[in-house]
Amino acid sequence: MLSGAGVVTYAVAGPSTAPAAGTKARKPSIHTLKLDNRGAGRRGLDRQTTERFSAVLVTWDDPEADAKGTPQVRTRDLETGKWSGWQKLEDEPSQADGAEGERAAARGGTASVWTDDSDGVEVRVVNADGTQVGGQPAGMDVKLLDPGTDPKGAPTVANMEPAAFTEETTAPATPEPTETAGTPSEPAVTETATETATGTPTAEPTGTPSETATDTASPTASPEPTPTVPEPRPSTVVKPPVITQAEWGASTDYDGTPSYGAEIKAAVIHHTGVDSDNGVSCADSRARMRSIQQEHFARGYFDIGYNFVVDRCGQIFEGRSGGMDLPVVGAHDVGFNTDTLGISYLGNFESAHPSRAALDSIARVVAWKFGMYGIDPTGKVTLTSGTEAGVTGNKIDKGESVTLPRVFGHRDTNYTACPGANLYPKLSLIAALAKTPGVSHALATSDYNRDGLTDLVAGTPKGSSGGSVTVIPGGVNGPVTAAKKTLTQSSTGVPGSNESGDGFGTSTAWGDVNGDGHADLAIGVPGEDDTDGDTDRGGVVVMYGPALDTGFSYSTTGVTQTGAKLGTAVAVGDFNGDGKADVFSAGTGKGGNWNARHTGGATKYGTLTGATGSVAYLDAASGDFNRDGYADIALNYRDTGGIGRVVRFAGSASGLTKVGVISVKGGRSVAAGDFNGNGYDDIVIGQPYTSESGAASGGQITMVLGTSSGFTTTGMRTIHQNTTGVPGGGEAGDALGSSVSAGDFNRDGYADVLAGAPGEDLTRSDANRKDAGQAILFRGSSSGLTGSGALGVSQDTSGIPGSTESGDRFGSAVTLADLSGYGRADLTVGAEGEDTSDGVILYLPSNSSGLGYGDSYVFGKGTLGLAADLQLGRTLAP
Fold it and tell me: Which of 26, 82, 267, 739 could form a disulfide with 756 if both were Cys (CB 3.0 to 4.6 A apart)?
């Protein structure tokens, strides 16, 4: 958290999002209004109409003075005309050094708060009881920051409204028969105690060199920055995708030129520190970046003070100009700006909790920059202050040295709470993540158009056309069905051709396969025949974002081709840590088979069992289960003896290797997430049937924790409908766990789980609705998943559109992913049997109060332009 003071420019404000057709684009700008003198040194501003703006701060003449009491603002929403409540503005001293610091010390002021698009403002400076405070510093004004419009070419889908929904009311579907487990045809595979070792390769040396002697070298005088542009240095770590200043629409009206240090010695972690940033959608992060830059201009900085900024969705933004690969001197930690890297996280982490995606992105930036100088992120460094103690919060007197971790918080050198009580304890985790052997890994993403939001995929593999997938972009109000894109094998650029039985879309997964920052889409086609007459050999199609009109396809390697059905399950992750995601796929044929296609086409493959019959119910999840930086895979299947299994595959510098079957039985579904918040990905196994897994009647979910050596049964937890706190009661055929998905719905830093129970019978109007289905949301905690506080959702839940009918099979597929960018995973639930097997999808957003039932909506074949009887809602991703 930081700011400054300085000369203000005056300009007309404008919208913060990309301009609509026919609307003139505008540059970021600032509009200033002087506060009224209300006598006795009191200052304020009555409600008034203003130019358009999206952020606001207050400044005053004397940089050494503080506001008495607390400046507060309330603003009028441009769209609704409603006035907000009062928002506090916190004093924020300048953090610039040298000449930039002298210029920035011309005025005092507060940090800016985000207001969203507004056209009215009211200002007061008050005590805690709301009474106005006198004795305010002279020259108080309010600065209205207009971030302008997004640059040309920026994504524009996110702020579109979802298409209006008209409930589809065709006759109820005929109930489907309850599924039963297959009869065993061969003896069950003997379980191992933990995992069956198969010679996992030893991980190669870390991509970040070991700590050098410079870590403990004697401190030198505070280095002086230089305007001389140094030569860029190569890094041992792959650069992560960064949204450049040009891409987020930065102003180039810099007040000066960049200065450079000699090297980067440490990273200083910040937060922006204002509550309003906790409510900014990732779709608006570009606009927020522009407003922060305007704030820093207004406070006298050369450019934005931070070197990089990260949002909760893991988007990385270039901060201060001058060269991302150079030791640019920032204005983020007075006395320690030279030779340090300033990274800020959008949000106030005194109250909010950091997301896993953001922590991973911060670690990737740290590792990339440290990799230029051979620095161990977990080491220590001795730094010397370049500014007198007490100046704008600096703790360390000029010339005095202090030994700090290589990754430290702003509070370590400044009298501030930054980076917040909930982020500061995570700094050691960031350092550890930055040191992992696979630190060059591709960042996980499900954002194909790179607008900051996760995008939804609905697969409809059934039908005479051979199957289809429909991509529905995320939006600030949920999935934007009006911008949907449907792909078949007859679509432009999609390899192959439509053939009945192909099963195109049986499985789907997102990941950045070509390393351009856009998510690419892997699509399973298990019924694909090859040109040599091998029926149902199967295959995988990969389509590149953002256009999804170019890609490639491939099939099996090294296994029996006929009937292999490769693509029954797919998952994506960077298994070898080269900065580009790889594709994992599996098929059911002849004992089961698997295939890992790495960047450039190198392939690893093998069989799942030694049986000659087919396995069933494949499902795969990607995660870093041992926290080494390489993506791993957990694959669920039912063996030919009718028993559920889960096999672990481990990533390494040489790629993915099959490790072995874990001791916990499998079921029908699997998902990965950090349920206890310790930095290791865990898995949850959906076990809907007793015969396959020994599950409780009606089904259950089982959490298995990840550790440095893989999975452990220590801390394992099983939850079902008879567990305390879980709604309903377990009954044979409920099939709880038929589908599972992991995500953090309440933004507490722990992954939660949404589980489908499509066989649940529900009673409405005194009539039993067989196989109506429901979904249950389970919460994560410091000890992992718990039944406490679990929430059940069905089509009879108040506020949910529609009503339960026999055979709806609500919960046939589920996702728990942040489709709106507010940091809370939203619920998406498929009902494949709705409307006589046409199927529908329910979107239920999460909010600060829990679930936004009144904002939920349903979309079906009519909205998406699909044919009848395709069982929409059978397959969903992410």
Answer: 739
Beta strands in 796-856 (DSSP E): 810-817, 826-831, 840-844, 846-847, 850-851
The tokens describing 861, both together, are: 């074949």
**CA 420 distance to own-chain centroid:** 20
Structure tokens at 405: 């971790």
Q: How far apart are CA 690 and CA 731, in angstroms?
A: 11
Find out whether 651 and 573 touch, Cβ atoms under 8 Å. Answer: yes
**Angle value at C-alpha 321, between 317 and 327, nearest 5 degrees:** 95
pLDDT > 90 in the chain, percent: 80
Cross-strand bridge partners of residue 30: 145
Nearest to 605 by CA among 597, 593, 595: 595
CATH of 29-146, one of 2.40.50, 2.60.120, 3.30.70, 2.60.40: 2.60.120
Rounded Cα–Cα distance for residues 581 and 575 (Å): 7
Return the CATH number of 456-665, one of 2.130.10.130, 3.40.190.10, 3.10.110.10, 3.10.20.30: 2.130.10.130
> What is the CATH code for 266-435?
3.40.80.10
Are 423 and 788 within 8 A, CB to CB? no
Per-residue pLDDT tens for 132-180?
999 999 999 999 999 998 888 777 666 665 544 333 333 333 333 333 3
Q: Which residue has the tokens 């109060």?
A: 849
Backbone angles phi, psi at 824, to 5 degrees: -115, 125
Peptide bond preceding 71: is omega within 30 degrees of 0, i.e. cis?
no
Cα-flanking dihedrals φ and ψ of residue 285, to 5°? Answer: -65, -35
Q: Which of 51, 14, 55, 2 is nearest to 280 (CA)?
A: 55
* pTM for the whole structure: 0.89
Q: Where are the domains of the chain?
A: 29-146, 266-435, 456-665
Confidence band (pLDDT; 50, 70, 90) for 783?
very high
Joined tokens for residue 644: 């559920």
Nearest CA to 816 among 864, 868, 775, 871? 775
Check: CB of residue 754 under 8 Å from CB of residue 775. Answer: yes
- Residues 361 and 434: their CA atoms lie apart, in Å, by 10
Name the band, by pLDDT with cuts 50, 70 and 90, for residue 200.
Answer: very low
